[in-house]
Amino acid sequence: MIKVQDLHKHFGGFHAVDGATLEIAEGSITGLVGPNGAGKTTLFNVIAGRLPPTSGTVTMMGEDITGLPPHDLFHKGLLRTFQIAHEFGSMTVRENLMMVPGDQSGEAIWNTWFGRKKIIEDERALLKKADEVLEFLTIDHLKDEKAGNLSGGQKKLLELGRTMMVDARIVFLDEVGAGVNRTLLNTIADAIKRLNEERGYTFCVIEHDMEFIGRLCDPVIVMAEGKVLAEGTMAEIKANEQVIEAYLGTGLKNKVKEEAGA
User: Fold this and answer.
1) DSSP 60-111
2) Which residue has the higher pLDDT, 106 or 211?
3) How far apart are CA 48 and CA 40, in angstroms?
4) b/e string for 103-139 if b means 16 or more Cβ within 10 A?
5) Cα dihedral: 134, 138, 140, 143 (round 10)
6) pTM (2 d.p.)
7) Known Pfam families for this protein (predicted)?
8) Cβ-Cβ contacts under 8 Å for 156 (sequence gap 6 or more)
9) Quick one: average pLDDT of 79-88?
10) Nearest-angstrom CA–CA distance, 10 and 225
């Protein structure tokens, strides 16, 4: 579905993404892991149109989408979430969801004068869909709560719910488990799995929680120093010498080996 070819993103002399090449298969839940500073979030930002690449290409279903702005990618079904949730804190959870779809009839001045019926019908449909999304995510009891009052995990579920309001085709999740307790993290994992299996969503997930990645993701792609270092199943990744060294460093890697052999 997504193909990244020889992608570079430079900030002056710093090469945050340095020739990354990878594919995200349609219908997969692909994990993207690596040590801090590996270039994972920068790669997400380039694919999702928040940053222009220095060079290289990104294609989606064979279409070149390199450098397209986020709003164009949104309409193509490519969405991303962030390490820190971006909710409208003073609005209710349900209202946050209803804000998502673009080109709503109420946005047109003409309709506010002559299309009131259409606006009312559309709002009813949005309300119904928002309630269905909240029920799917098991947070329907929070529908009238101000979004700013939610816990970190509940906000991550709300962000996932936003992607459901527009029937996304591929969703990039950036550290969805950051600051989330284990119970809510399991709820998030279940929702991702159901969206993948029942609705055909494709996901690419950045996460430092290897248990979470191992439960959900196949394949797993490892980045280090802006490059793709390895790809495979979680078992293959855990056994990969280059991956171990990238995470632990040569000294610690040798110490782990010595302790394992002792």
Assistant:
1) ETTEE-TT--HHHHHHTTEEE--SS----TTSBHHHHHHT-SSS-GGGSHHH
2) 211
3) 12
4) eebeeeeebeeebeeebeebeeebeebbeebbebbeb
5) -70
6) 0.84
7) ABC_tran (PF00005), BCA_ABC_TP_C (PF12399)
8) 81, 85, 176, 177, 180, 184, 188
9) 80
10) 12
Pairing of strands 227-232, 202-206: unpaired
User: What is the rounded distance in angstroms from the CA atom of residue 26 to the CA atom of residue 32?
Assistant: 16
Pick the CATH number of 2-87+166-260 from 3.30.565.10, 1.10.1060.10, 3.40.50.300, 3.40.50.11540: 3.40.50.300
Q: Where exactly are the structural domains of the chain?
A: 2-87+166-260, 88-149
Closest C-alpha among 151, 142, 33 to residue 92: 142
pLDDT in tens, 212-255: 999 999 999 999 999 999 999 999 998 898 888 887 665 444 54
Supply the mean pLDDT for the chain: 87
- 56 touches 66 (CB < 8 A): yes
DSSP code of residue 262: -
> Can you read off the two tokens belonging to residue 209?
């929680």
Tokens 């490892």 correspond to what residue?
A: 222
Cα separation, 97 vs 141, in Å, equals 14
